[in-house]
Amino acid sequence: MWNTYGHDGGFGMDGLGWTLGMGLHGIFGLAFVFILTAAFVLLVGYLWRLVAPIPAAPESRRPGGSEPALAALELRYARGEVEREEYIQKRQDLM
Fold it and tell me: Is there a single domain that holds both residue 20 and residue 34?
């Protein structure tokens, strides 16, 4: 009965199955391209960090890792043995 003009009554080229299949094919194709692009970006970022690591701060600028002279000056300032102006001047000299 439906064999006229290409309609065979099933899910052939002109039926619902072909249209639905094409729509899903497009969605899965886009998802595949998106996943490949995301994987490539993550891989490049990972490799970039391996090749160019972030440089560490100099030893004198690290918190808690200051030189012994600066640590001694800070201790003397905390005890009140050194005035503020003298502390600032000596700190600038040491840095």
Answer: yes
